[in-house]
Amino acid sequence: MGFMNKQVFQVGFSLLMAFWLGFGTLTQPAIALTGEQKLVSEVWRIVNRTYLDETFNHQNWAAVRQKVLEKPLSDSNASYAAIVKMLKSLDDPFTRFLDPEQYRSLQVNTSGELTGVGLQIALNPETGKLEVVAPIAGSPADKAGIRPRDRILKIEGISTKNLTLDEAATKMRGPSGSVVTLLIERDGEAETEIRLTRDRIALNPVVSELRVSTEGTPIGYLRLTQFNANASTELAHAISSLEKKGAAAYILDLRNNPGGLLQSGIEIARLWLDSGTIVYTVNRQGIQGSFEAFGPALTNDPLVILVNQGTASASEILAGALQDNGRAQLVGETTFGKGLIQSLFELSDGSGLAVTIAKYETPQHRDINKLGIKPDKVISQAAITREQIGTEADLQYQAAMEILVKNSLVAGKT
Q1: Which of 139, 150, 301, 338 is catalytic?
Q2: 53 flagged as catalytic
Q3: Could you confirm whether 142 is annotated as catalytic?
Q4: Which of 141, 170, 176, 394 is deepest in the core (most CB within 10 A)?
Q5: Residue from 139, 208, 264, 313 carrying the catalytic annotation
Q6: At what angle do helices 165-172 and 100-111 cross, to 10 degrees?
Q7: Coil, strand or helix: which one is 73?
């Protein structure tokens, strides 16, 4: 009984102390945070709640926030710089801040569609000029006859000389039906002004083609450039089309594919698997979830996946799932080794925050972060041009063809 009284006293005393402390805080003047400080606090709270490493890189995360807020933040740029510095202390390059322009650009890249003129652009490192890499097939730019290597000198009369890639891309985007004028320079021709009517443009991440080996085996070649919202649907269409054309085996080229949406990688794995685990996820509480294939696969034909050091993230999830389930052989180089999963958060001012919230393991519980996935057949090769991909100069592609021809002959599919 005395023990219970002691317990009641301890609880009662704790409540009294809590009330006293609470009352005491009411007597203190409230310190209002500025808008810039509120944004910093917003980022801090998201990281505090969701970040994979509960030690926050072995530091006092609350103290980090306090230190950042001690200094005055004069404007949004100052708050952005403070946030970047705060996140840098985590020593995680994938947990990062995105200003409003960067955030919009990332959304466009993963959504699978945009509204604009349909140009892939780059800055020429030698001349510094804004160049066309390629027009997207069927886009307004393609229909207007804009070609690779054309230089874009002006957008709506504004010189592109001092524009960044993001700034130039933003100026060319706009609502469907609106008009934008480009001043184009082309070798051997006079400068030309081209008026383009913007339209909705689908970003097709899939290249597909039916190839025939020297032994006469019909092989479906598929190249996947990113895991956006369209990727699984487009790849499913490509596989179905190649099946109808008589493909007896497949090459899936994931080289230099930096990844994208986790869900897209999972859906694509399901296209190839009748059953089995695709990936395990582990958060900071150690809770393990899994994603499964439930079939039927679109095809059970032999499959080789091409990978290299630029194969990362969702690409590694897909490659690891198909390798561990015995569905595909991997050819090429050890992959990048990004075994972390980020979630994207939109902040109150329109900027964004990518936070590492979990890690993943392959079906055989391989943690590949910073290790990568080793191919079944390792073949290194020097960098090749876009035109050389899938040709005799492409040693990794040729090795994949040899494996598939051998498998197809054994299976009697030729």
Answers
A1: 338
A2: no
A3: no
A4: 141
A5: 313
A6: 60
A7: coil
- φ/ψ (deg, to 5) at 217: -80, 125
Task: Tokens for 60, please give them.
Answer: 């006092």
Cα separation, 144 vs 117, in Å, equals 10
Q: Under a CB-based contact definition with an 8 Å cutoff, are residues 280 and 290 in contact? A: yes
97-117 tens-digit pLDDT: 999 988 887 776 666 667 789
Counts for the chain of helices (H) and strands (E), in that order: 11, 19
Dig out the tokens for 306 from the structure: 């091409």
Task: Summarize pLDDT for 167-225 with one digit per residue, the tens.
Answer: 888 899 888 999 999 999 998 899 999 999 999 877 778 999 999 988 889 999 999 98
User: Cα angle at 289 between 337 and 268, to 5 degrees?
Assistant: 60
Q: Which amino acid is at 383?
A: A
**394 classed as catalytic:** no
Rounded Cα distance between 90 and 355, Å, is: 11
| Total residues found in the chain within this entry | 414
Tell me which residues of the chain have a pLDDT lower than 70.
Answer: 1-31, 108-113, 125, 134, 137, 166, 408-414
Place of tokens 């609880």: 11
